[in-house]
Amino acid sequence: MKQKNSATTVVYQEQVSPSLALYLPVLFVFPAVLLVALPISGWQTATIAGACVTALAALGVSRLGHVIVIQGSGANALVRVGQAQIEMKHLGELAVVKGADLAAATGPQLHALSFRKLQPKTGFLIRIEVADARDSTPYWIFSSRKPKELSEAFAKAKAN
Fold this sequence. Notes:
By secondary structure, the chain is of the alpha+beta class. The chain has helices at residues 29-37, 43-62, 101-105, 147-159; strands at 10-16, 66-71, 78-81, 84-87, 91-98, 115-117, 124-130, 139-143.
């Protein structure tokens, strides 16, 4: 029987997609392209151009999301947010930021060197301190729709 490698076992995974409100401006792309292209070309060409540009805009908005993954357990566990990853041994405490503290955490209190992946309208931010003295990044701050599950998975992966 083959044993699973603990470093590749996914403990937690979450896809943080953009809110539907970010897709509203995409609705105005088609009429805008139509108004610009119609005087230059025919009706069919303007319609095709509008549909293509609208599809590209919708694809661009959908790419604004990110994936949060906690993989493995113990000091060798990995935390990935989007394309960035860091080993658990370099991380400190996790804190959930919510309510009135959201504006301060993403505004005046936001450190310029922090790693951030923010989504508007998620309602929660996760802040994880970076404990590595060689790393100039003081903390990671990113959006999550399931902060309770994420903090439990983080604590479980860090404890093992």
